[in-house]
Write a structure and sequence with these properties.
The structure holds two protein chains of two kinds. Chain A is an alpha/beta fold. Helix content of chain A is 41%, strand content 9%. Chain A has a five-stranded parallel sheet, sandwiched between helices. The chains are: A alpha/beta, B alpha/beta. The complex binds thiamine diphosphate (TPP) and magnesium ion. Thiamine diphosphate binds next to strand 2 and strand 4 of chain A.
């Protein structure tokens, strides 16, 4: 087991104004960053199988949004889902075990990076299908409403997903049924190689909300405080029966789309520019500058999280490999 | 006491009503299932009995509503999605095939998708190529989906209630031509076991396996053939996934002859699976004649009534084919 402090809503307007919430947010940012750097390294050394999509550079989105959520709230996630999974509170060891194809992984080695779900924390699953989780989120929200529960559902997806029919159908359903769901688009400027400039005529993805009669807002996705503020408002509205919101978070992925990316569609200058807007560095600097944490405290948190990631790798590596003998189990749930 | 006779459509509605009464997590969603009562009249008055929340009219949005059903099923509800024509499942295939079918296995077995998707299939209504297909093999080919095809009012109710008890996604393919047909249906809630083939007629000469509307058509053929001294065993698999081969193999061992009847096009159709399974086991040694497959032509369903009828097996085709098998041609 390797976990971080659960994200909490700050007792203040901003996450960075509340020490406890700020530490949790910093832990989340760093856990996502170090987890992904670690798996990137394992991959480079041939110790990890398949492919994966890293959200390095986008950590503030999942962190800011999940700070506005309760444990009983649900999320749906994407192929680029490590950040959502970690921010919602997953066990880093079980995540790592899944990526290392272990029996103890979240999916017993059947899902891998692209399919992790975590029942405990309300993560209904990453998804290998672009936009696949968006209608599911609407359905989970309908389910909360029908059951009279006040849980909220957040659906994470990319800019590319907003060109899929599933996005449009799900937003329309959520709007006409006033569902307690928040649609969070991580606009990292590209769907694989194809830029938003080429893939859509609207200037802002949040403009698409108007077509469904719901509020749409664009926010700096590299700023935890800014993301938290709009997420909190949207989550409150959803929870109190005010219906869905579309949030567009402007961000950028530092790494390639997946393991096959040669970065032929973007310039080094662009990548370097966005690295100067690194969400982790920005948040750390802000906390120290505002005197919420000392540099020493930041370093302590950093060491702690590095230790958790090391634990996760060690524990996961020691676990048994996923077992072909039980392959035919769980195609169906047993009928009782 | 006389038998209680209702239609196939009424039997489906009765099953839904009983399930909704017994279990508050059961709800329905689909296009025009509210005051309109459903494109084939199946939901009828359910909206007046259970309200618009539980008999939920949706926008024309197949992918969205199947996805919503998946999400609801993942989080404690038991949705019944109605797709107006099974052809339109093509719009929702991602949610059916990549999501509902995979989630339990792919995510390690902790989550499940107890969803029922009902859709009318089949030709015979003059609605032509995009409203008349029999796509059961699509679904049966995907691990993680259960597929049932009720062939009578009795099975329409029994299989639907069984599907609602099942913690997995179940595709219920109802036949349009059967909706108005009548038969004995007990009033109480009962279940037809999913994964158990049913022998609907016993005869010593020829084993016929048929699905959907072909079951009743084959039974009619059997009556005609009996007058000529040919006795058919007719088996309705009821569920295509999982498939119960036992009664089929046992019957083939006795009759030595096997005919397979489906409405869907022959090429890579579901009945090829049954033929293959018979050929993989000892029952093949009992066969005294080659297996006969009687199926739809490999063409889209046409509009003109005479064309439409020519595409799928009709009563005289079944009678003639059975005689061919008996004569060894
Ligand atoms: C339906 C579907 N089409 C295409 C793909 C291949 N693919 C995987 S991720 C991706 C890009 C998605 O872009 P976006 O939604 O912006 O998310 P990002 O990768 O930028 O996080 C593509 C084309 C897929 N997995 N699913
Ligand atoms: Mg993108």
């Amino acid at each position: 087991m390797a976990t971080i402090t659960p994200l909490t809503a700050p007792n203040a307007e901003r996450v960075s104004q509340d020490k406890e919430a700020a530490i949790a947010a910093l832990e989340s940012l760093l856990a996502i960053r170090f987890f992904e750097e670690a798996v990137d390294g394992l991959f480079a050394r041939g110790m990890m199988h398949g492919t994966m999509h890293l959200s390095i550079g986008q950590e503030a989105v999942a962190t800011g949004v999940c700070a506005a959520l309760r444990k009983t709230d649900f999320i749906t996630s994407t192929h680029r889902g490590h950040s959502h999974c970690i921010a919602k509170g997953a066990d880093l060891t079980r995540m790592m075990a899944e990526l290392l194809a272990k029996q103890t992984g979240y999916c017993r080695g059947r899902g891998g990076s692209m399919h992790i779900a975590d029942v405990e924390t309300g993560n209904l699953g990453a998804n290998g299908i672009v936009a696949g989780g968006i209608p599911i989120a609407a359905g989970a929200a309908l389910s909360q409403k029908l059951q009279g529960k006040d849980n909220v559902v957040v659906s994470f997806f990319g800019d590319g997903a907003t060109n899929e029919g599933a996005f449009h159908e799900a937003l329309n359903l959520a709007a006409v049924w006033d569902l307690p769901v928040v649609f969070v688009c991580e606009n990292n400027k590209y769907g694989m190689s194809f830029s938003t400039a080429k893939s859509m005529k609207v200037e802002k993805i949040s403009d698409r909300a108007a077509a469904y009669g719901m509020p749409g807002v664009t926010v700096d996705g590299n700023d935890v405080d800014a993301v938290y503020a709009v997420a909190q408002e949207a989550v409150d509205r959803a929870r109190s029966g005010g219906g869905p919101t579309l949030i567009e978070c402007l961000t950028y992925r530092h790494k390639g789309h997946s393991k096959s990316d040669k970065n032929l569609y973007r310039t080094k200058e662009e990548i370097d520019f966005w690295k100067t807007k690194d969400p982790v560095g920005i948040f750390e600097t802000k906390l120290v500058d505002q005197g919420v944490l000392t540099q020493e405290e930041v370093d302590q948190v950093t060491d702690k999280i590095r230790g958790e990631i090391r634990n996760a790798i060690q524990e996961a590596s020691a676990a048994p490999d996923s077992d072909p003998a039980e392959l035919l189990s769980s195609v169906f749930r047993e009928v009782n | 006491m006389s038998e209680r006779i209702i239609t196939y459509g009424e039997a489906v509605r009765e099953a839904i009503g009983q399930a909704m009464e017994a279990d508050p997590s059961v709800f329905m969603l689909g296009e025009d299932i509210g005051v309109y009562g459903g494109a084939f009249g199946v939901s009828g008055d359910l909206v007046h009995r259970f309200g618009e929340d539980r008999v939920r009219d949706t926008p024309i949005s197949e992918l969205g509503i199947v996805g919503a059903a998946v999400g609801a099923a993942l989080t404690g509800m038991k949705p019944i999605v109605e797709i107006q024509f099974s052809d339109f499942t093509a719009q929702a295939m991602d949610q059916i095939v990549n999501q509902a079918a995979k989630i339990h296995f792919m995510l390690g077995g902790e989550l499940a998708v107890p969803m029922v998707l009902r859709a009318p299939l089949g030709s015979g209504t003059g609605a032509a190529a995009q409203h008349s297909q029999s796509l059961e093999a699509w679904f049966a080919h995907v691990p993680g989906l259960k597929v049932v095809m009720p062939s009578s009012p009795y099975e329409a109710k029994g299989l639907l209630l069984a599907a609602l008890d099942d913690p997995n996604p179940v595709i219920v393919l109802e036949h349009k031509l059967l909706y108005k047909t009548s038969g004995h249906v007990p009033e109480e809630a009962y279940r037809s076991e999913i994964g158990k083939s049913k022998v609907v007629r016993e005869g010593k000469d020829l084993t016929v396996v048929a699905t959907g509307v072909m079951v009743s058509r084959t039974l009619e053929a059997a009556t005609q053939l009996a007058a000529e001294g040919i006795e058919l065993t007719v088996i309705d698999p009821r569920s295509l996934t999982p498939l119960d081969m036992d009664p089929i193999n046992a019957s083939v061992a006795q009759t030595g002859r096997l005919m397979l009847v489906q409405e869907a096009p022959k090429h890579v159709g579901y009945m090829a699976e049954i033929a293959a399974r018979v050929s993989e086991g000892p029952a093949i040694y009992s066969l005294t004649e080659p297996v006969k497959r009687l199926a739809g032509l490999d063409v889209p369903i046409p509009y003109a009534p005479q064309l439409e009828k020519s595409v799928v097996p009709q009563l005289p085709d079944i009678v003639a084919a059975a005689k061919d098998v008996m004569r060894g041609v």
